[in-house]
Amino acid sequence: MEFLNKSAKKADEKIIELYVYTITHKSWWDTVDFITSNLVGTYLKRFPEQRKTLTSQWMKSENMWLQRTCLLFQLKYKSETNTEILHQFISQLSGSNAFFIRKAIGWILREYSKTNPDFVINYVEKYPLSGLSKREALKWLKNNFRHS
Asked: Alpha-carbon distance 148 to 145, whole Å?
């Protein structure tokens, strides 16, 4: 993964096939999260025309790890986070009973709260989320005295 990360900004467009294979075979949260936030996130910045097609396929796949990828690929985007896409995936997955999906929803919102706290506070108040997702989403704000 580290080797792939070093070459992510120069990788060929077909590298996504390797990323997807790695996400879907012998998957676990630690490898998926690294691949998603570092490799897939970089890939979708470099090839934004692929984003809609790929994420649509991943959401339809019913593979929890690919769906988690849809939630977390923007993890390091900060002010470049596309909140429409973020909302779309959270809305589609917020009813999931899968721990790793609920945790990812909270994690992406928590990370984005460091960039846009008002968006996250309003989002958590407006949309139905699991208790886990809400706690995770507001954790950074709560710890930094920005939300009760």
From this structure: 7
Token couple for 147: 């939300």
* Radius of gyration of the CA atoms of the chain, in A: 15
Domain spanning 92-148: CATH superfamily: ARM repeat domains (1.25.40.290)
The pTM for the full model equals 0.93
CA distance 135 to 100: 14
Contact 104, 68 (CB under 8 A): yes
- pLDDT (tens digit per residue) in 28-77: 899 999 999 999 999 999 999 999 999 999 999 999 999 999 999 999 99
Q: Where are the domains of the chain?
A: 1-73, 92-148
